[in-house]
Please model this.
Amino acid sequence: MSHDPDFAADLTRYPQRPFVREQSIWAIATYRFGRRVDRLGPGPRRSLLTRIYWIRFRLVETLTGISLPKEAAIGPGLRIYHFGNVFVHPDSKIGANCTIRQGVTIGNRTPGGGVPVIEDDVEFGAYAQVLGPIHIGRGAKIGAMSVVLEDVPGGATAVGIPARIVAAGSGESST
Model:
């Protein structure tokens, strides 16, 4: 399959030789592979590669504890530090150059409920939970172990359970 500029951007945020140093890149590579497979036209090649994707997905998910389903819309430059227990809902939208640490969940609050939309350059601390139909603005920082249930403006820092804004940002948003 052809060159993937999104995966190339992901790799720029990792140290040299990431496949032997950081297990999280395995999950990102599998995610990007699945997205490329979905862009293929229908036919036996796509069918075979889809099967390969699902085997890879389950294997990497089991080995790393990172679930990045190909249905999620994730921008280029994703960086996951300290693999393990990272779950992203398939309907989530994550912008470019976002950073996720171990234990982060990005998902819905109720079955069939809405999911977060996350702009570019957002950082998630370890074990942060971002749940429901909320919007996280560009450059926001979500503190470790925070439970975010409401919108966070661009550039702001949110911490706590439930999360509250402790440092205001510019309030600017690209949406």
